[in-house]
Design brief:
Elements: E1 3-4, H1 5-15, E2 20-23, H2 30-38, E3 44-47, H3 51-65, E4 69-73, H4 77-80, H5 83-92, E5 96-102, H6 125-130, E6 135-138, H7 145-157, E7 161-167, H8 168-172, E8 174-175, H9 191-207, E9 210-214, H10 217-220, H11 224-234, E10 237-240, E11 255-258, H12 265-272, E12 276-280, H13 286-289, E13 300-304, E14 313-316, H14 320-333, E15 339-343, E16 346-350, H15 357-363, E17 369-374, H16 381-384, E18 390-392, H17 394-403, H18 405-408, E19 428-430, E20 449-454
Parallel strand pairs: 2-3, 2-4, 4-5, 5-7, 6-7, 9-10, 9-12, 10-11, 12-13, 13-14
Antiparallel strand pairs: 1-8, 15-16, 17-19, 17-20, 18-20
């Protein structure tokens, strides 16, 4: 059954879950408002005082609903007024669909009211919007609308504005087409990078505090709940980028405040004592990283749609809700479990975080490791201990526990280490093939912990 193009558009955005559209009425967009009025039981057309305001309303709608923002404007000056708002959506990767009216096709270049076709000396709306949108197309025929709309929605959902230019006569024309089916989101994911990130989170959780800085992609991907769950399983402190103040409730456990030039000192203090800083859905622009550059160093990891501006080990994910959920699940299920290692054709299980003397003795094969006696400054134990490879001697476990109980809670007390000579502090000894682990009866005063460095592929990953 034929339907007007404008009715098709309103039905399509309504079917995608959009409940409000924003704009300013005008001669070359009034038909769309007419269609929205007819569908007022499903969608509300909000009339703004200025198109810039309408564009920012659509931007805000997309940010708060994790859906698609829709803005409507007429041609000429109305279209020009959208530029600043859409440019912000482009810079912030916000999905906004702009429906922009144009003069009737038979009057283009012939003195039409608010002509922006680029003909006969008029400005070209397509060129104007092309630089601030991920997709911009002029709908030349009613039959071409479904394809253009599908491409525009797909582009906007990838993170940014999309623009459809709609001549008035095309809006009024009839279209025979089935119900619009929005394209399925296409998500990018770096599986290897996410696996490395998981390993890093496990390691950091074992030796110290994880601090998360969350950004606006958490809101765009509707991943607030998943962020909270990840923070809980890591017992992490959480700060937020200036443009993401709504992604983590300030009353939640572990909230550290806002990052950046007008941020909170608690976040910087927490980063200085952390084992790992995890950036979630933020690129850390200057406004977010100001004052933190000195503490955002080698121990920074990132997950999100784009790599951050700071140095970090990055894992790509354009679907943070799913990725954070999977990380949380793996961290829950993997707590305290052995990591399988293949050696010489057989599978061996050992624990990277031993909880008993015996477990420490079998944690790393004596045939394939080197023991180092490493002095660790008690003033900053979590920064001094690399992940995975430590067994703490009983003589120094008590000292460490008294100065920083939380940092050492995961490590075993070695109550009765066997007595045997081990090389002095600062040197290394290769344990002979087949020999048992050897410990000094009394740890040297300069030695705080023994570090076991795996040889070949036999150690903790």
């Amino acid at each position: 059954m034929p339907t007007r193009v404008v009715d098709y558009l309103v039905q399509a955005v309504s079917d995608m879950g959009v409940r409000h559209i924003f704009g300013v009425d005008g001669a070359n967009i009034e038909d769309l408002y007419d269609a929205a009025y007819d569908a007022s039981d499903r969608i509300t057309a909000v009339v703004a005082k200025h198109e810039f305001a309408a564009a920012t309303m659509a931007d805000g709608y997309a940010r708060t609903t994790a859906g698609l923002g829709v803005v409507c404007a007429t041609s000429g000056g109305g279209a020009m007024n959208l530029v600043a708002g859409l440019a912000e959506s482009h810079a912030s990767r916000i999905p906004v669909l702009a429906l922009v009216g144009q003069a009737p096709t038979d009057l283009e270049g012939k003195g039409a009211f608010q002509d922006s076709s680029g003909r006969a000396g008029t400005f070209d709306a397509a060129e104007l919007f092309d630089t601030i949108s991920l997709y911009c197309a002029r709908v030349e025929t009613p039959a071409s609308l479904p394809a253009h709309l599908s491409r525009a929605v797909a582009a906007a959902r990838a993170g940014g504005p999309a623009v459809l230019l709609l001549p008035k006569d095309i809006q009024q024309a009839e279209l025979v087409a089935g119900r619009f089916v929005a394209p399925r989101p296409v998500h990018g994911r770096d599986d290897a990078g996410i696996e490395r990130l998981l390993e890093g989170l496990r390691a950091a959780r074992a030796v110290g505090k994880v601090v998360i800085i969350a950004g606006a992609q958490v809101a765009r991907d509707d991943a607030r709940d998943q962020l909270r769950d990840l923070a809980a399983v890591l017992d992490a402190g959480v700060g937020v980028a200036p443009d993401a103040k709504d992604v983590y409730d300030c009353t939640e456990h572990g909230f550290l405040g806002v990052a950046g030039s007008m941020g909170h000192t608690e976040l910087a203090d927490a980063l200085r004592g952390s084992a790992l800083c995890l950036l979630v859905g933020t690129r850390m622009p200057v406004t977010a990283r100001a004052g933190l550059e000195a503490v955002l160093g080698a121990s920074t990891a990132s997950v999100g749609g784009e790599p951050p501006y700071v140095s970090a080990v990055h894992a790509t994910s354009t679907d943070l809700a799913t990725t954070l959920r999977e990380l949380t699940s793996e961290l829950k299920s993997g707590a305290g479990r052995g990591i399988p290692v293949v050696r010489a054709g057989r599978r061996i299980h050992y624990r990277c975080r031993p909880r008993t003397d015996r477990a420490c003795g079998i944690a790393i094969s004596s045939k394939h490791s080197t023991a180092h006696c490493i002095p660790i400054p008690m003033s900053s134990p979590t920064r001094a201990i690399p992940a995975h490879r430590w067994c703490i001697t009983s003589a120094h476990r008590a000292t460490a526990a008294s100065s920083s109980p939380s940092a050492w809670a995961a490590w075993a007390t070695l109550s009765a280490p066997p007595s045997a000579p081990v090389s002095p502090a600062g040197t290394a000894t290769t344990v002979a093939s087949g020999a048992p682990w050897s410990w000094p009866a009394t740890a040297p005063s300069t030695c705080t912990a023994w570090r076991f460095t795996p040889r070949s592929s036999t150690g903790c990953r």
